[in-house]
What does this fold into?
Amino acid sequence: MRAWRLVWVLAALVVTALCAGEGYVLACAKPDCKSDGHIMFGGGFTFNQITLFCADCRDWRYLRWGNGNRLVPPDPPRPDAPKADPPVKPPAPTPLGSIWDPEAGQTKRHFACPKCSKPALEVASPEQIKFCPKCNTPGAKVTVVLAYD
It folds into this structure.
């Protein structure tokens, strides 16, 4: 019985390691804050993704674009049909600009928010989240809850 449990744990670790993206839940340190923080970082097999926080919308936003991979392989070439060109890989979104953060010592990019078109800050990893985005209280906790591809 113990061996099967170990096999399941190892299988879960392998599946998680093979996944390209992860979903997180953000919990505010302040008990009465009703922060609804569901955040995704990383892309998948067929898409890339940038995670943004828009200060005007006060919400998480995502920029997604294809990476040229297909879930279904193309039809095999036929001798009577002309050879089809492979699909063009769409370009990554262009940032509006970047700014150097003297507290973190990092350069951070800004992109246009997909909803309001105002500048939104890229959040590259969950480790960058130190404050609740809703009430600005320090000590926000980000916990992984999902791995996807």
